[in-house]
Design goal:
Shape: globular
Largest sheet: 6 strands, mixed
Number of helices: 8
Helix content: 25-40%
Bound molecules: adenosine-5'-triphosphate, magnesium ion
CATH superfamily of the largest domain: P-loop containing nucleotide triphosphate hydrolases
CATH topology of the largest domain: Rossmann fold
Distance between the termini: 35 Å
């Protein structure tokens, strides 16, 4: 029998409706006909340049698209349609987002309270301390306000907040910028562990090197389209990559010669 994916996205398109002037509206399609499956135990990376629609993909999955966005296509979670009502029930529990911006932390609330989601019993306190510890943060962090954290600490707090309740699907939007490379590798190791424990993890990043290091599969995204989906191991050999854009990204990596990306022709897409 076929395995049921934790997340199955079919033909997802997202577009924005914007006023060009007082009377005319324009539709801008930012995600085009995207298909993606995520299975239990898997870490999948979506790699794309800035503005390619990565955060919108995360927000579409979580049902938090901006008011002027509309979407079409189908999403299912563990075999059942992921409706707006269902995502609202699951969000923050089984399906979590590690947001791109640390401004998602409430500036007026102490960190410990945010991680515990305002639950104040002994069990959740213990669990929170364990989680902080897992991400290399001391107990004292609990009593700090977000402005007292360094950028790297704030990011680890965001991750701790997301994974406190053993989620089944983790969407991490640029989870490691501003973190020292060793700490970044440690964080990626934690995502691997979360997947090994039975979840599916989607890492969204502009960093191909990080994607290859962290993921089992890499989806290359360009202007809202999937250009290529490859096993992370395929990136050890350029000839295994099929799309010119993926090959250009590969060649631009320091270990592969640091060659500049030539212009991508419309015909290549
Ligand atoms: N509310 C909005 N109204 C109109 N256009 C928007 C809106 N939000 C995002 N966009 C556009 O959608 C495109 C994709 O945005 P998105 O935030 O998903 O990019 P991204 O790949 O996450 O980029 P980055 O790597 O910089 O985070 C961008 O061109 C952006 O300008
Ligand atoms: Mg983004």
């Amino acid at each position: 029998m076929d395995r049921i994916p934790i997340l199955d996205i079919q033909n997802l398109s997202v577009s924005f409706s914007q006023y060009v002037d007082m009377f005319r509206k324009n539709d801008l399609q930012v995600i085009k006909d995207l298909n993606l499956k995520l299975f239990e135990g898997e870490v999948v990376a979506v790699v794309g340049a800035s503005g390619s629609g990565k955060s919108l993909l995360a927000h579409a999955i979580l049902g938090i698209l901006p008011y002027n966005a509309s979407f079409s296509g189908r999403m299912s979670y563990c075999g059942e349609p992921l409706t707006q009502m269902r995502i609202e029930q699951l969000r923050g529990k089984e399906i979590v987002l590690v947001p791109q911006s640390v401004s998602y932390l409430d500036p007026l609330m102490k960190v410990g309270f945010q991680i515990r989601k305002s639950v104040n019993d002994k069990r959740s306190k213990e669990k929170m301390l364990q989680t902080l510890n897992r991400y290399g943060l001391g107990e004292e962090v609990e009593k700090l306000y977000p402005f007292e954290l360094s950028g790297g600490m704030a990011r680890r707090v965001l991750i701790s907040t997301a994974v406190m309740d053993s989620p089944r699907l983790v969407i991490a939007d640029e989870p490691t910028p501003g973190i020292h490379i060793d700490a970044a590798k440690q964080v990626l190791g934690h995502f691997r562990k979360i997947a090994d424990d039975g979840a599916a993890v989607l890492i969204i990043t502009h960093d191909l090197e990080l994607a290859i290091e962290a993921a089992d599969r890499v989806v290359v995204f360009y202007a809202g389209m999937t250009l290529e989906e490859a096993q992370a191991s395929d990136f050890s050999d350029e000839s295994k990559l099929s799309h010119p854009y993926t090959r250009a990204l590969w060649r631009a990596m320091p270990q592969n010669g640091f060659r500049a990306i030539e212009s991508i022709k419309e015909a290549d897409l």
